[in-house]
Specification:
This protein is 65% helix and 10% strand. The protein is an alpha/beta fold.
Length: 630
């Protein structure tokens, strides 16, 4: 990549909604992300990446040590059988051809049999190694795929708000495919090439030290060319992995937002951005191929020159009687086995470098620590009546350093009370909900449930006790019943139907083509917004949480659907602690208590009727809402 092209690349990438080669959104607003990005190109950072990759690889291979030992044994047997061929040719020429002229064919037949046995051994060892390495490789890939997927699920919402969906898909597809390519065909090639080179070098010295000395004249050139290729290709393949990840990221982001792209006629602009990232990938791949185009022919030239030197020097010695012709023939055959693997090494090294870069990125993901870690010694929630009391004790929180959203919030919600949170956009309403659901931990203060700090609760117990319902509840591909059962996986069909009846969803579900077995399709696209919301309420009802959080749960609904959902709410909220965030005050009117937030602080607190008559901020909001109904 030329220096002149970089400003254009940066300008195009700046158009990609915060997209960058490392997969973070809005990096300028994230000092930690800026710091890590600046460090990523330093030698220390590269060394840390490589160390992380090695640690991950060792952990993946550790369970397979026994089978790896057997695989190494099979490779050694294959290499030994392969190395026997030229030596047997030498013996055939020098020890069997002469006696054959005198009528003694026994040595030649024996050597031919030995050659066939060596070939059979090489075949059997190769076949056994490929079968064993395939089992090991697929087991490693399965383990790695499950680790990465499980880790993504465990990482906090804060991580997923920064890390793009396209980047996650790239980790689980492109990077794993790159490692799979190495596992399927690269590892044995690399190991066999190394074994061949070392074995041939030793055999050449043993066969004829002076002739081997002439061969060693090529080693400084080989060493220099190989070191240059190793250094240059490492950076080239890392750039290639970053570039292909950008292509995937932009494609996924564009397809996810295709309605907005078409609505705002962004197709030409998105096409321009995609062309730019695709061109980056093309240039990065070309850089890698140019290195191979230099390295592979360079090895061939060095090999051919070395063969010419050996042929001239060895032939001179044969003619002078200082060497047997069989030794020279074996020497030339061994040289072929020496340089051919080195030529192929560029292709193997391609897979190795690509897989190494991918392994480093996956190791980086697995090194991410959840922003809301599990407690070392979880504290159980107390049982009995009166469950669901919530308390915020001097809670402060900000998504970015220096920009607090909540400042010393004090809030007590008795068990069973429904509290509505209202206020202008950015006042901190959704932040209160996220802290109570423990999507984030407060910067200062504590959030407790029934007297237990949320940071001391096991995640599974917290998720059972606190359920969040938003205006865009995600329905998974599957049946309606499966989506309701998501709130309690062990619920039977009767419990699912009872939950649907309780929230008023049974009638529309029964009218679907296959009733509760009807597929909702991707993201619930077969259902209307109101139907999806009722399914979400049924899911929350069957989960039976201590605390239910409704974050703008009715804001996207029309008036008739909202009335239907309001009736479902009355059932869902009964005898349950609830925090309701709503701009529509029709939802707020049913609450026991209203909190008005502004600037991250509670500025009004009381029953909705009293606050509506007080002349304060809630009264103004209430008046505006009533006027909007006229």
């Amino acid at each position: 990549m030329t220096a002149a092209s970089r400003p254009r690349d940066r300008a195009l990438r700046a158009e990609q909604d915060g997209l960058d080669p490392h997969g973070w959104r809005g990096r300028a607003a994230d000092p930690e992300a800026d710091r890590s990005s600046a460090e990523e190109a330093t030698p220390e950072a590269v060394a840390r990446l490589r160390a992380r990759g090695r640690v991950l690889l060792r952990s993946l291979l550790r369970p397979h040590r026994g089978r790896l030992g057997l695989a190494v044994g099979l490779l050694l047997a294959q290499n030994a059988a392969a190395m026997a061929g030229p030596y047997l040719v030498m013996l055939g020429i020098d020890r069997a051809i002469g006696p054959l002229r005198a009528g003694d064919s026994g040595p030649l037949v024996a050597l031919a049999g030995a050659f066939a046995a060596a070939a059979a051994t090489e075949y059997a060892a190769r076949r056994g190694f490929l079968a064993l390495s395939a089992r090991i490789g697929q087991a490693v890939l399965l383990d790695l795929r499950q680790r990465v997927y499980g880790h993504f699920l465990r990482l906090s919402v804060g991580f997923h708000e920064r890390y793009t969906t396209g980047r996650m898909i790239s980790r689980l597809t492109s990077d794993l495919d790159s490692i799979g390519e190495l596992v399927d065909g690269g590892v044995d090639g690399l190991v066999l090439a190394a074994l061949s080179i070392l074995s041939v070098a030793g055999i050449l010295l043993w066969l004829d030290a002076p002739l081997a000395g002439a061969t060693l004249l090529a080693f400084p050139f080989l060493l220099w060319l190989s070191r240059w290729f190793a250094r240059a290709s490492a950076g080239a393949y890392r750039r290639s992995r970053e570039a292909v990840a950008l292509v995937i990221v932009h494609f996924i982001e564009s397809m996810r937002g295709v309605r907005a792209v078409q609505a705002y006629r962004r197709e030409p602009r998105n096409q321009r951005i995609f062309a730019a990232v695709s061109d980056d990938y093309r240039r990065a791949s070309l850089d890698a191929m140019r290195l191979i185009a230099t390295y592979s022919p360079g090895i061939k030239v060095i090999g051919n020159v070395t063969v010419a030197v050996v042929l001239a020097y060895g032939g001179h010695r044969v003619l002078g009687g200082g060497m047997e012709v069989g030794v020279l023939a074996a020497f030339l055959l061994y040289l072929r086995r020496f340089f051919e693997p080195m030529q192929e090494l560029s292709q193997f090294y391609n897979s190795l470098q690509s897989a190494t870069a991918s392994l480093e990125k996956l190791a980086g993901v697995l090194d991410e620590r959840p922003g809301v870690p599990e407690p070392a010694d979880p504290v159980p929630l107390p049982g009995g009546p009166g469950r669901g009391a919530v308390e915020f004790r001097r809670v402060s929180f900000g998504y970015r350093a220096g920009a607090p959203i909540l400042a010393g919030v004090e809030l007590t919600v008795p068990a069973g009370q429904t509290v509505a949170l209202v206020g202008p956009t950015g006042a901190g309403k959704s932040t209160v909900a996220k802290l109570l659901a423990r999507f984030h931990d407060p910067d200062a203060g504590t959030v407790t449930l029934d007297g237990v700090d949320l940071r001391d609760l096991a995640d599974a117990e917290l998720r059972r006790a606190v359920v969040l319902v938003t205006q865009e509840n995600h329905l998974f591909s599957g049946s309606v019943a499966e989506n309701i059962r998501f709130g309690r996986p062990d619920a039977d069909d009767a419990a699912v139907e009872a939950a649907a009846r309780a929230v008023g969803a049974h009638d529309f579900i029964a009218a679907l083509p296959e009733g509760y077995a009807t597929e909702v399709r991707r993201r619930g696209g077969r259902l209307s917004a109101g139907q999806r919301q009722l399914v979400a309420f049924a899911r929350a009802f069957i989960a039976d949480p201590r605390v239910l959080i409704l974050d703008e749960a009715t804001s996207s609904l029309d008036a008739p659907t909202e009335r239907l959902v309001q009736r479902a709410l009355a059932t869902v909220l009964r005898e349950r602690t609830a925090l309701v965030i709503a701009h529509r005050l029709s939802t707020v009117e049913t609450a026991d208590r209203v909190l008005v937030l502004d600037g991250g602080e509670v500025v009004e607190d009381g029953p909705p009727g009293r606050l509506a008559r007080s002349g304060g901020r809630y009264a103004a909001l209430h008046r505006q809402w009533r006027d909007s109904l006229v």
